[in-house]
Amino acid sequence: MEAPKRCLEILLLLLLLVSGNPNAFIHRALAEGVTPEEAKELRDEVRGMFYHAFNGYMEHAFPLDELRPLSCGGEDTLGGYALTLIDSLDMLALLGDWEHFASSVEWIGKNLQFDINKTVSVFETTIRVLGGLLSAHLIASDYATGMKIPSYDNQLLNLAEDLARRLLPAFDTPTGIPFGSVNLLHGVDEHESKITSTAGGGTLTLEFGVLSRLTNDPIFEQVTKNAVRGLWARRSKLNLVGAHINVFTGEWTQKDAGIGTSIDSFYEYLLKAYLLFGDEEYLFIFQEAYAAAMHYLYNDPWYVEVNMDSAAIVWPLFNSLQAFWPGLQVLAGDIDPAIRTHRAFFSVWKRYGFTPEGFNLATLSVQQGQKSYPLRPELIESTYWLYKATRDPRYLDVGRDMVASLQYGARCPCGYCHISDVEFHKQEDHMESFFLAETVKYLWLLFDLAVGPDNLVENGPYKYIFSTEGHLLPATPQISLFREHCSYIGAFCKSSDYNQESRTSDIAADLHEANGSGSNEGQVHSRFSSSSTFFESTLTSGLVKGFCPGLSHGQKFGITYLEPVDTTNQYESANKREPNILQSHSMVVVPNQGSDYSNSSNDNDHDNSQENQ
């Protein structure tokens, strides 16, 4: 493993020296200084960008899903239910546009229905539609947000519950990992592919978890947690996960491990589920997964893709979806590597005006077939989080450059266009709904923060967690102080309406299941090895108050991995690798003394991390 990685480092160094500019791709621009007045102008300009695209959609595409901004038309791309409007709701609230927010909520409540013969992506429908409905419901129903709609009567919540129930058949698999698609009227088609991505199966916990807390029905949270367990149980011995998996057999069909395409938000939702729900199981998995990613994937400041079993480099590529990672590191408290990686990623943006879908680190050029920029928000999102954490003015300069690129390269008659080729800035007649849900949202928040924030996120009554689609999920007592945690603080605990059976520890359910005293066909727990140290531990009393502190995380949660059917010595060489290739990082939520990886913890960083959420 060391030899290929060292060769890559040498190759990168030589190419940079040959270019005559060793700083060409590790951009070290000094902050030119965005003044408060300019920051206000940029914030207002971004507001104008939003309304140029939103009004274009409402005038030329609504109620179709998405806008065709060049031809000023519309198209149904997901399910035919006004996708862009739903995705835009909480941005309207963030801007304080009560009139448009209220009228949009009213229209959706009266006209939207999911009793339609459409086959939809479980992942996209969850993060865009379910998340958009839940976020808008939580804003519209709460006086504390300043955007309450007096006539609102939970119409969006009812729609969200109806939609989620139509997605539930996708989870009926032997592994608990859901199918990638489901028909909203008929369920899963018999010919539906059994292959799904790790991100597709592991990025559902926030939306479904919030819905369980709002409806007092545990089924939504249970199925998505089982999906995460199903994926994590099949990790390699290096604690890496692959990109695609068979939801029936649990066999990895693509073993490339990375932080980008097909895997990215799996890591994101592990940490954010812990931050929003306080569930330590997600924290434990994140700690293990993050340590492995930093050990095997991090090639400072870039990230590569490796074989999940051997850690051999298979793809020295930066893809644009990796750009969310520095923002996630800010939430985890690992700031230094986030700064270096963001600088490297932004150097690609500076070179082309946008980030291509793929940038080859071996040739330092756009990857063939991956030249497009579909208005992705990930690098902008990380810029916002790094500015929030550091208040370094260089990130305002970065934001200013991004606004200029979008205005001069992507703006078209009725909205903003995909860039089909970043080298020639060729426009394509399509605008994803996430441009309004995320891209302009993070830009606006960046400059509003610089001016002196006056918005729901920074000055509102709650701390907010952003979903992977940028939707606002508040840490209200009903959502965050639920089950065990309400017992600690004495706050909201609506136990009388919640299925009492579901309040019993998940650990107890898993133990009964694994020992054959209960049957729950299709769940992953029965597939765990009976030799796991977890089953050697005994159940402790006081389940509501917490787990016995004498048990390890693995014993508490029963987290193990499923041995492959054909066990070989393929891991042996990788496991002999010295674990000290990385400098230790100052972490808030990723200390793991029982791991093979070396990461130091700084308790003083904890409060800072909470402020950055």
From TrEMBL:
<comment type="similarity">
    <text>Belongs to the glycosyl hydrolase 47 family.</text>
</comment>
<dbReference type="GO" id="GO:0044322">
    <property type="term" value="C:endoplasmic reticulum quality control compartment"/>
</dbReference>
<dbReference type="Pfam" id="PF01532">
    <property type="entry name" value="Glyco_hydro_47"/>
</dbReference>
<dbReference type="GO" id="GO:0004571">
    <property type="term" value="F:mannosyl-oligosaccharide 1,2-alpha-mannosidase activity"/>
</dbReference>
<keyword id="KW-0732">Signal</keyword>
<feature type="active site">
    <location>
        <position position="378"/>
    </location>
</feature>
<keyword id="KW-0106">Calcium</keyword>
<dbReference type="GO" id="GO:0016020">
    <property type="term" value="C:membrane"/>
</dbReference>
<feature type="active site" description="Proton donor">
    <location>
        <position position="357"/>
    </location>
</feature>
<keyword id="KW-0325">Glycoprotein</keyword>
<feature type="active site" description="Proton donor">
    <location>
        <position position="124"/>
    </location>
</feature>
<feature type="active site">
    <location>
        <position position="264"/>
    </location>
</feature>
<keyword id="KW-0256">Endoplasmic reticulum</keyword>
<dbReference type="InterPro" id="IPR001382">
    <property type="entry name" value="Glyco_hydro_47"/>
</dbReference>
<feature type="compositionally biased region" description="Basic and acidic residues">
    <location>
        <begin position="603"/>
        <end position="613"/>
    </location>
</feature>
<feature type="signal peptide">
    <location>
        <begin position="1"/>
        <end position="20"/>
    </location>
</feature>
<protein>
    <recommendedName>
        <fullName>alpha-1,2-Mannosidase</fullName>
        <ecNumber>3.2.1.-</ecNumber>
    </recommendedName>
</protein>
<dbReference type="InterPro" id="IPR044674">
    <property type="entry name" value="EDEM1/2/3"/>
</dbReference>
<dbReference type="GO" id="GO:1904380">
    <property type="term" value="P:endoplasmic reticulum mannose trimming"/>
</dbReference>
<dbReference type="GO" id="GO:0005975">
    <property type="term" value="P:carbohydrate metabolic process"/>
</dbReference>
<dbReference type="InterPro" id="IPR012341">
    <property type="entry name" value="6hp_glycosidase-like_sf"/>
</dbReference>
<keyword id="KW-0479">Metal-binding</keyword>
<keyword id="KW-0326">Glycosidase</keyword>
<dbReference type="InterPro" id="IPR036026">
    <property type="entry name" value="Seven-hairpin_glycosidases"/>
</dbReference>
<feature type="binding site">
    <location>
        <position position="468"/>
    </location>
    <ligand>
        <name>Ca(2+)</name>
    </ligand>
</feature>
<keyword id="KW-0378">Hydrolase</keyword>
<dbReference type="GO" id="GO:0005509">
    <property type="term" value="F:calcium ion binding"/>
</dbReference>
<feature type="region of interest" description="Disordered">
    <location>
        <begin position="589"/>
        <end position="613"/>
    </location>
</feature>
